[in-house]
Amino acid sequence: MSLDKHMEQSFPREPKVVFQAVLAGLEKLDAKTVKSEPEQYRIELKLPKVMLGKTLGERTYVTCEARAQEVGALLVVDAYPLDALERKLLFGARKGVTQMAVDMLLEQVGQHLA
Questions:
Q1: Domains plus CATH for the chain?
Q2: Strand 32-37, strand 42-47: pairing
């Protein structure tokens, strides 16, 4: 079973606005930016073990990209858990942690777009 998570969510806004909402959400989650490509609306980041007062148990590596659609934007999110040395965790991950981290990120994006 793969520990990687892939999610896509549509928003009725321009990709630039969605990307800015992702950036705003990162501050609240105490995420660390690894690589940012604002002209492609793409960012790579590391989410901590503790977000919004909840202890998830593992760090999470996330890649977000806002893509244009006919109407609005599609936010593509890929994520996987990290071990204590911040390498990709290949086994032994806690069930549901990566999904919960992605859900928390998408919730922040939705709040900033509201």
A1: 5-113 (3.30.530.20)
A2: antiparallel
